[in-house]
Design a protein that fits this description.
single chain, 141 residues, alpha/beta, Glutaredoxin, 46% helix, 20% strand, globular, disulfide bond
Length: 141
Amino acid sequence: MAQRLALQRLLALPARGALASHGRAFGTSAGRRSTFNVQDGSDFQDRVVNSPKPVVVDFHAQWCGPCKILGPRLEKLVSKLEGKVLMAKVDIDDHTDLAIEYEVSAVPTVLAMKNGDVVDKFVGIKDEDQLEAFLKKLIGA
């Protein structure tokens, strides 16, 4: 009986086509599309340095407590900007070469990049208002 009821509820859900017609895909969000993990130096070059959009680069580490607070906070604000800015996440333990190249001496370090150039940066944790101001300055809002 319980299985039949569960099956009836499942069948009553709208079809995937109905979800797509509202411009939303099941299980995705704007944050997922605008935020990505850098895979290697070549990926960084292609998706960050050569990006036509401004990119926020979050240099972080798994063992870094403040990074675990800042990362999700920054991702949330980037997703609210609906594609006006991208966010690249760079784990300094996996990509030491990029950390050295961009003179990252502490984590979290966040760079604002436009047309392949670093135009702003901060080190440490920031509150949402400060992050919002940082992002608005980057996109010129």
